[in-house]
């Protein structure tokens, strides 16, 4: 990824932070994007990358807002001259049975997870089309094992994570011959605040379908994300890659 530049959303924490660190380690410029309310942690991610010899800065955004999706891309292009990769990773979950999910919670999960991914991809693809062929750019979206099957109490979340795979596949086929690759990762239970802040019995329930009975480390997702963005994955596009210790393989 030496000499490349791009962005990671939700990079103040968890999987996004691990991916941002890994992009930085691999020599890429990183725009560390997250909510204004997460600025301190986001600045910390950027500082960690710089301390390790990388190149990064923080940008506040709300991925649910169209103007922010566009502004993030513009900032990467302004700072590094082009955008080569993007990791649309910011996401939220609401834990409730479907019939008890409020309309407001449903709309918020859709706005952040699904609309946010759509808005990000739209502006990233437009900017990548300005790059020289043949390999103009690579996008990785964070779906979930809940993008490949249902997960109890995560109906709204699972709907958005399935939807992210639809966006991923469509963009992959529409822009393949333009030299833009679009893939998704589908993590299993990864030990981040999204998991660790849940009650222990709920954590155990989410972990139970995994064949490996340990939670994943965010760095284990980052390895897949950065590989998918690299030239090593030059013939890989449109995939929904489980990084999930066999949780969708069967249980
Ligand atoms: N942790 C898991 O077990 C797991 C499993 C599968 C998928 N995922 C997905 O991985 C992604 C990252 O999750 P995580 O586990 O690292 O969670 P996390 O809560 O540690 O990090 C999520 C980050 O997204 C940011 N964010 C939330 N809403 C935002 C918005 N509107 N605009 C910009 N940033 C926003 C948060 O501030 C936070 O820093 C999410 O899409 C999540 O659904 C996580």
TrEMBL record:
GO molecular function ontology, one term from the record: oxidoreductase activity
Domain of life: Bacteria
Entry-linked SUPFAM superfamilies: NAD(P)-binding Rossmann-fold domains
EC class of the enzyme, as a word: oxidoreductase
EC numbers on record: 1.1.1.-
Nucleus is among the record's keywords: no
Recorded family membership: Belongs to the short-chain dehydrogenases/reductases (SDR) family.
Name recorded for this polypeptide: Levodione reductase
Source lineage: Bacteria, Bacillati, Actinomycetota, Thermoleophilia, Solirubrobacterales
Gene: lvr_2
């Amino acid at each position: 990824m030496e000499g490349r530049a791009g962005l990671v959303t939700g990079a103040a924490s968890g999987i996004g932070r691990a991916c941002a660190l890994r992009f930085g380690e691999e020599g890429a410029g990183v725009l560390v994007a997250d909510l204004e309310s997460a600025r301190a942690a986001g600045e910390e991610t950027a500082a960690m990358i710089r301390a390790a010899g990388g190149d990064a800065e923080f940008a506040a955004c709300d991925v649910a807002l169209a103007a922010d999706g566009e502004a993030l891309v513009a900032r990467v292009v302004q700072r590094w001259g082009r955008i080569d990769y993007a990791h649309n990773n910011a996401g939220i979950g609401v834990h409730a049975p479907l019939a008890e999910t409020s309309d407001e919670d449903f709309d918020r999960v859709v706005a952040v997870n699904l609309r946010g991914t759509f808005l990000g991809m739209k502006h990233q693809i437009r900017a990548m089309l300005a790059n020289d062929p043949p390999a103009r750019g690579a996008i990785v979206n964070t779906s979930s094992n809940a993008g490949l099957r249902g997960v109890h109490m995560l109906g709204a979340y699972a709907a958005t994570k399935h939807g992210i795979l639809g966006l991923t596949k469509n963009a992959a086929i529409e822009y393949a011959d333009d030299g833009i690759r679009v893939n998704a990762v589908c993590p299993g239970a990864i030990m981040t605040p999204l998991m660790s802040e849940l009650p222990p019995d709920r954590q155990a329930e989410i972990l139970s379908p995994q064949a490996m009975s340990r939670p994943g480390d965010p760095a284990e997702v980052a390895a897949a994300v950065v590989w998918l963005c690299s030239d090593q994955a030059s013939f890989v596009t449109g995939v929904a890659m489980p990084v999930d210790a066999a949780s969708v393989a069967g249980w």
